[in-house]
Amino acid sequence: MFSISDAQKITDTVLRQQVEQHPRAQEILRAFLYPYDAPDHDFLFVNGAVHQTGTDDIQTLIAGRTPVLAVGSNRAPVQLARKFAPPNHQDPVPVTFGWMAGHDIVYSAHITGYGALPATLAPSSGTTVRVAVTWLTPTQLSHMHSTESVPDHYNYCQIDGALIALDCGVTPDRVGSYQSVAGHCFDRDETFALIDIAGRNRRFPAKSQWDMLCHVSRRSGHAPSPSLILQLIDDPELRQKIMSHYLKR
């Protein structure tokens, strides 16, 4: 899914060179580049391709589907391509964008199997954050649950659709949401927003994925490096050990 050319998105020259020269560069980039690039407009994801949609098309495309909030990588074509690869590619996935009031998109206090700290939703009074909504068939929703590791890593719940102002003008009554089981509080009760997701009037400091990986590794006595990311990918016990003192259940 990722190529060496994607390393150009890493602004630190030394770090970029380390990644480019590493034999497992693609795996490292999957962690570093989370939550991945996404269009900032409504689109239809069809068998690996992105098609921009017009407002007039939305009602037809979403009819009979369940709206599900995509606060992290699920709004990105590269992640949709991974999750809805064959044999799960038969139906298209409409994705609509908008703004959500009273919340922010923040880092979850757990590390994924591919070495990234993923996103979750957190209340944030006065904040408005850019969100996406995927519209899923029953089969797609069931598959999405499995990719989100429900209920081990995320709980699936319903939130008030009135909190979300979609660009297309649609206002669903309720919207599904994956909420992190681990929560979003790190040591000192800190919460960190994703700098790659647009937000207004943020209360929480915003960090990049690499900043967060550095934060959690240093606080747990490890030196941040591309090699550490691969250790996290290869060793579930190390992931749990690093994050264990952050978990507040």
SSE order and pairing:
Blueprint: H1 13-20, H2 25-32, E1 43-46, E2 49-52, H3 55-62, E3 66-70, H4 77-83, E4 93-107, E5 119-136, H5 138-147, E6 154-160, E7 164-166, E8 174-180, E9 193-194, E10 199-200, E11 206-207, H6 209-219, H7 226-234, H8 236-243
Parallel strand pairs: 9-11
Antiparallel strand pairs: 1-2, 1-4, 3-5, 4-5, 4-7, 5-10, 6-8
Helix pairs in contact: 7-8
Description of the structure:
Helix content is 28%, strand content 28%. The chain is α+β, with helices and mostly antiparallel strands and 249 residues long. Strands 1, 2, 3, 4, 5, 7 and 10 form a seven-stranded antiparallel beta sheet that branches. The chain has a two-stranded antiparallel sheet with strand order 6-8. A two-stranded parallel sheet has the order 9-11. A hairpin with a 2-residue loop joins strand 1 (43-46) and strand 2 (49-52). The mean pLDDT is 92.
